[in-house]
Amino acid sequence: MAFELKQEGFRLRDILVVVGIPEATYHYHVKNFGKEDPDIELKELITEQFKKFHERYGYKRITKELKKLGYRVNHKKVYRLMRELGLKCVKFMRKSRKYNSYKGNVGKVAKNRLSRRFYTPIPLQKLVTDITEFKCLGEEKLYLNPLLDLYNGEIIAFGIKKRPTLDLVMEPLDETIEFIKNYATYRTTIHSDQGWHYQHSKWVNTLKKNNVFQSMSRKATCADNASMENFFGILKQEMYYGEKLVSYEELKRRIEDYIYWYNHVRSKAKLTGLSPVEYRTQSSQSAA
Q1: Cα separation of 182 and 123, whole Å?
Q2: Residue ranges of the Integrase catalytic domain (predicted)?
């Protein structure tokens, strides 16, 4: 190639400057042209893992998954190989549709027992909840109300409805109460915003009847429920933003599938690389 360039009257060095390729890089590729790629197996494995996790994992999480499989590989190398393969998470953030259920004081407003103390080493001691809105194909909307355990980030129960009715929050609350009765070892606190659902006498009385503390954020203070907002951000970034609008039923199915995947498969750094359910199960076995 260098000989052909000289025959045309151009110097190789000048050509490389114009196209922006370092001379050392050019000679490296000439030297290794036709040789078998030493990282071919690792590249295939990285591609397999990237697809396995629905293209939602970046190089750091892919590195952890490779180590789980017994591969000792540096995250910098994984980053380089993913760039070479063109593997990049393309789930970008965009403006969130924040549902606001606040209608003034329509019931009793509870004090903020959580006070932004989001960490707990005790399962089911602190739960948070909120409602978020999704736009569907056509004029339909979807409303999601999950209850999240701050111990491991697990979604204990959730409700999905076409309208933000009281059942949207009561059905998952009843399911959560049963879970608490069976597994909680410490009195539970459930934290929410001041939305009308959480001021409703049915919600308040259900908590009291089952000896559950109620906690509420201060009005217009999103940081008081940052853990729930963070989950909504992750969910929408990984399975909603950037996708075409779909029907209510299809979106409902996707959210149900995602929450199962989030609970059972999606690894978290602060859980030592385990999923929420894996972490809870491992911790309960260790305690036993």
Answers
A1: 12
A2: 119-284
